[in-house]
Amino acid sequence: MAMKPEDILRAIAAARGDAICVPTMTTSPAWRTLAPDDLSIGCVGFMGGASALGLGLALAIPKRRVIVFDGDGSLLMQLGSLATIAGARPRNLTHLLFKNGVYHTSGAQDIPGGLSVDFVQMAKGAGYRKAYAVKDFEDFKSRLPSMLTDEGPLFVELHTGLADKTPMTDRGGQPFHQQIENLCQKLSKAG
Predict the structure, then answer these.
(1) Where are the beta strands (DSSP E) in 117-177?
(2) For the chain, how many structural domains are there in total?
């Protein structure tokens, strides 16, 4: 049975410490509810941009862990980001891929290749320090501490079902420029 995205996000919210999170597409509504005031920048509206945005944050703030919550459909839009991230070698980047085989946000149409796409092999081939798949929630929970501390870039393909809500079914996000302003204010106060 596929893991529930909301269960994964709940576990991350409890363990993330002061990490900066980059939720995209179907992880965004649940993350806004679980961590409304955390250090995060939602990547909704520019599909495929979460990994590049996460890389920029990881390079700009190397003393903080950056966790990208990517989608398989989103990553397919910007596969080149795998090589860019691997080449930059940010030690503080954890790239989590929520793999469900569909473009959930736009109506659950199959992505090219569906569930047979092997993103782990792509990340390894691009040069990530470590890449692996997790298909079971108990396995995820046992590996979560190392996902938040292992030297990056780290890529983890999480086999999930569909999220309860998507950005199209759950409104209430903030415009990107406002998110950036809020993050800068929080970081300046946090030191």
Answers:
(1) 130-134, 154-159
(2) 1
Measured CA to CA, the distance from residue 59 to residue 3 in angstroms comes to: 31
Say which amino acid occupies 189.
Answer: K
Rounded Cα distance, 87 and 107, in Å: 34
Strands 102-103 and 109-110, bridge-based pairing: antiparallel
* CATH at residue 183: 3.40.50.970
What percent of the chain has pLDDT above 90? 50
- Token couple for 34: 């679980």
Whether 152 and 94 have beta carbons less than 8 Å apart is answered as yes
pLDDT digits (tens, 9 = 90+) for 80-132: 999 999 999 999 999 999 887 655 565 556 666 766 789 999 999 999 999 99
For 33-94, give the secondary structure using H, E and C: HHCCCCCECCECCCCCCHHHHHHHHHHHCCCCCEEEEEEHHHHHHCCHHHHHHHHHCCCCEE
**Full domain range(s) for residue 167:** 5-190
User: How far is Cα 55 from Cα 80, in angstroms, rounded to an integer?
Assistant: 13
